[in-house]
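Our preliminary data section would be incomplete without showing what the modeling component actually yields. Below, a chain of 287 amino acids is followed by its predicted structure, encoded as tokens that our downstream tools consume directly.
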Amino acid sequence: MIGLHFSRLNLQSAVKNSFIFFTALFSLSCYAQTAKLAIVIDDIGYHPKEDAAVYAMPKQISVAIIPSAPYAPQRNQQAKAQGRDILIHMPMQPVSNIKIENGGLLVGMSQHEVTQRVQAAKNVVSNAIGMNNHMGSAATADAPLMTALMSELHKHHLFFLDSRTIGKSVAGKIAKEQGVRSLDRHIFLDDSDALHDVQHQFQLALQYARKQGTAIVIGHPRKNTIAVLQAGLAQLPDDIQLVSMGSLWRNEKIVPPKPFILLFSDLAAPTNRAPFENIPLLRGVPR
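Predicted structure:
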């Protein structure tokens, strides 16, 4: 009788350990296959209605605020209160003759001028953890300007997200030389504002994340972009995890998915024969 009791306990222990092992194995398998999707919405600070729709989305969506925008200070404080990551969306000189916003960076500026403009932007978007370029096809390809900028970002402990508005950008290379963490945009959601095109770009972002492990996506506070994100994020596949830009900057690990729910209590249950002793993981007739 004693031998039977010990055999039963050994069997129960083996079953419990096997359950724990396979649950852990499943969790690790999901962990290994989960891809990261980071989304940044540029041009925040101009349109209250569209900004509000963006700020109603999950806080993992980061916002890039233009310092000279009329609602920039309010959006900065609002995002901070939500625990949402903020970037300074710094206007920078493009190759074309398009005029940029006040306070932007131009090719040929001195270190002193760059220092003043970065500080002024940081005074407005005070809760920023990083910076990305608004336009900037000429600026990000200019080594002297990028050297001056990265020197300032290093002082302010800010990372740089290169929007990749030009293929020959030197921003990432110089950032590395200056000890600044640099990340690159992978997918633009809304180069075309047509609904079908934005939907296509969102699916492309998911494919990119699965293939590369991480997709950094940039969009804008526009009607169709907001509609696609609202629908897409509500049905985000299980193998894709929405993450903030800060989590990428800090190289944070993906939180493994929760294991299977234990359907049966692991509390001791009474046997169905006298003396009705409690045996762990044994389901009997309730008292």
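The longest strand covers residues 35-44. The first helix runs from residue 2 to 33. Preliminary results of this kind motivate Aim 1 of the renewal.
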